[in-house]
Design a protein that fits this description.
By secondary structure, the chain is mainly α. The chain is 60% helix and 0% strand. The chain has 13 helices and no strands. Helix 8 packs across helix 10. The longest helix is centred in the middle third of the chain and has 29 residues. The two termini are 51 Å apart. It comes from Coemansia helicoidea. This is Pre-mRNA-splicing factor cwc22.
Length: 351
């Protein structure tokens, strides 16, 4: 039905059924095989999302079959005609596997509810002849016996999960005979205790204010220098643009530091004696992985053009080649050129 969002949701649901040992792992392998049999951009994207969730379990119980699945992903990456964005998703999945699927544990903490000897694993396969999808359940129908069916469901649920009845109904009536006599005295005690609490709160608040550590503002920009150094070393120590982009994406950036990464790539490019396509490919990959980087380079283009008269000729040529590469590969929208106004009053010899 061309509803990719719903398809991914169903795939994730099947993955978690497998993780919880409700469905057998054979079903997971069949789902992946079906998705990758004739790979398209959408089917590979769904398969990647599915493997991210179920990969940790399959690595434990069937590592050899998991290796075969990733060999299929590798051949798709190198041979299939798929979109760049989907290729990046496959590469991220391989990195996810190298990290041991640490962000997608088999069963998240707090959800391991059923003992292993009590679990019933349903061995259902996609090629079973007796499968009934029951599509009619996707259509809403008014239930004439709704209340009765809800009571049956509550009984079944309580039988499995244990009852959650509230037994606090009768306690309010007991001891009612003596409640009136002590009302006035209790009120006075409550007022005194409330005033004491206010005094304690004020003293506690002042003590907390004194004990609170002062926030230190670093005006030396040491953290910024360290970040620039990390970005520079990540770029210069890489053998290929793919490795460089991967290292840059792994750097933990605080909000607002994305622009600094974009500026550093441009600065590294400008410092070279001649233009290297290496830097253009880094910028292209970043822009196509996430549109956040595209907006960052859009701002960098405007900033570079505004200060274009400050660059030396060699730097200017490299920066021009860099942005030409991003425009030529559709990594940047052509709307960035709106900052260019070619009139005698608004241009310099550099621009």
């Amino acid at each position: 039905r061309d509803d990719k969002g719903q398809c991914i949701a169903v795939a994730m649901f099947l993955a978690h059924l497998t993780n919880q040992r409700v469905a057998h792992e054979v079903l997971a392998f069949q789902v992946v095989s079906l998705l990758l049999e004739t790979p398209t951009d959408d089917s590979v994207e769904v398969a990647v999302a599915f493997m991210r969730e179920v990969g940790a379990l399959l690595a434990e119980i069937a590592p050899r079959v998991l290796n075969a699945v990733f060999d299929t992903f590798r051949s798709i990456l190198h041979e299939a005609d798929i979109d760049k964005r989907v290729q990046y998703m496959i590469e991220v999945l391989f990195q996810y596997r190298r990290d041991g699927f640490k962000d997608s544990p088999v069963i998240p903490e707090g959800l391991d509810l059923v003992e292993g000897d009590e679990q019933i694993v349903h061995e259902i396969a996609l090629d079973d002849d007796d499968l009934d999808a029951q599509d009619e359940l996707n259509v809403f129908r008014v239930d004439a016996e709704f209340d009765e069916n809800e009571r049956k469901y509550d009984a079944i649920r309580n039988g499995i999960l244990g009852g959650d009845d509230d037994d606090g109904g009768g306690s309010g009536d007991e001891g009612g005979s003596g409640s009136e006599s002590g009302t006035d005295g209790d009120a006075e005690d409550d007022q005194e205790s409330a005033s004491d609490d206010d005094d304690d709160g004020e003293r506690g608040g002042s003590a907390a204010q004194q004990a609170a550590p002062q926030k230190i503002h670093d005006l030396t920009e040491t953290e910024l220098v360290n970040l620039r150094r990390t970005i520079y070393l990540s770029i210069m120590s890489s053998m290929s643009h793919e490795e460089a982009a991967h290292k840059l994406l792994k750097i933990e950036l605080r909000p607002g530091e994305e622009q600094e990464l974009c500026n550093m790539v441009i600065e590294c490019c400008s410092q070279e004696r001649t233009y290297k396509t290496f830097f253009g490919l880094i910028g292209e990959r970043l822009c196509k992985v996430n549109r956040t980087w595209a907006s960052g380079y859009t701002q960098a283009f405007a900033s570079c053009y505004e200060n274009i008269h400050k660059y030396e000729t060699g730097h200017l040529r490299n920066i021009s080649h860099f942005f030409a590469h991003l425009l030529g590969t559709d990594a940047l929208p052509w709307s960035v050129l709106r900052v260019v106004v070619l009139t005698e009053e608004t241009t310099t010899s550099s621009s």
